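[job 4471] stage=fold_predict status=RUNNING
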Amino acid sequence: MKLGEGIHLTYCSNIHPGESWAEVRANLGRYVPAVRDRLMTGGEFGIGLRLSARAAQELAAPGALEELRQFLARERLYIFTFNGFPYGTFHGTRVKDEVYLPDWRDPQRLRYTNLLADLLAALLPAGPPGEPALEGSVSTAPGAYKAALTGPQDVATMVEHLLQHVAHLVALRQRSGRSIALALEPEPDCFLETIDETVAFFTRDLHGPAAVRRLMALTGLGPAEAAEALRHHLGLCLDLCHAAVEYEQPADCLRRLHDAGIRVHKMQISAGLQLPTLTPEALESLKRFDDPVYLHQVVERGPAGLVRYPDLPQAFAALDGHAAQREWRVHFHVPIFLDRLPPFASTQAFVREMLALQRAHPVSTHLEVETYTWGVLPEPLRSGTVDEAVARELAWALKELQP
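[job 4471] inference complete, writing structure tokens
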């Protein structure tokens, strides 16, 4: 949906299981018009499309791409952002830490992301004459899973592949006139986890003098043009669940990103679980959220400061007799329209504060609701159909974004 001032709101299609293009295309036809019609009586509805590597390769076939364009035109839809984080299977089987693979150390990740950028450039709508062209964004993994890294050479390899991707985006912009940005998505227990780590990495490795020189060599750009291209094409996907789980402070978080010159190319509107007090009732109920599919990282705040656990089993195993003195925040995406999930709270208050900041001074032009865990939510939280739930989430976000 177009909210004015060049701002677009959608939801991420990773809520719909599907790894082949045929499955993704069927989901688009089944769910997206239904969500659109629950929210709008006219105008165009934007799509945040998740494509696996397999689906991207299948969509690249000329017939498939043209058929998608016709579908979009017929249904008053447009695509402006891709979720390029999960490379392979994302539903119905164990994902856990494999969701980051191949990570940015692997040239497969680079090839996949280059293809996504090409596809998005081919699908971006031209827009009305006289208005600025719509830019596209592709969100991606936060470098790698932190425990998988072995040393500085791994970081250097990730940087090289990211710079090669920026060179691809520069060439794509020169060739097509379409501008695509890559948005790295910090996540608990990953190489990019906190805003401090993100600012340090961008400042040192992605926006610094060595990165500028390397991009000059890859593209033939001059120093000023290369520095501008790095800041234009390489930025952040700010997932609000992830940031809240890390106990970031909304205004401070945005200030530090702004001061470092890091663009927020996409804001993912999402909420996590919050246990303000680790009562026996809350801990027992939390066990229902320990599913075998996704990682649910836990960040604990207590007398020892912040303590991090890679998943719920490790957090449960570390409990002792002082549980009542601690708070847990859990990486489990829950519906954003719920502030209470008895006996828990959610991090909805963080979402409200961030959307108030977005409303006052736009942080990002790409806003995407992302609650992909619908299939593994405990049954009491899954009432209604998926399109009803998505529409309710978008309606809640719209209300929060209104002046």
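[job 4471] summary: The chain is about 45% helix and 20% strand.
[job 4471] exit 0
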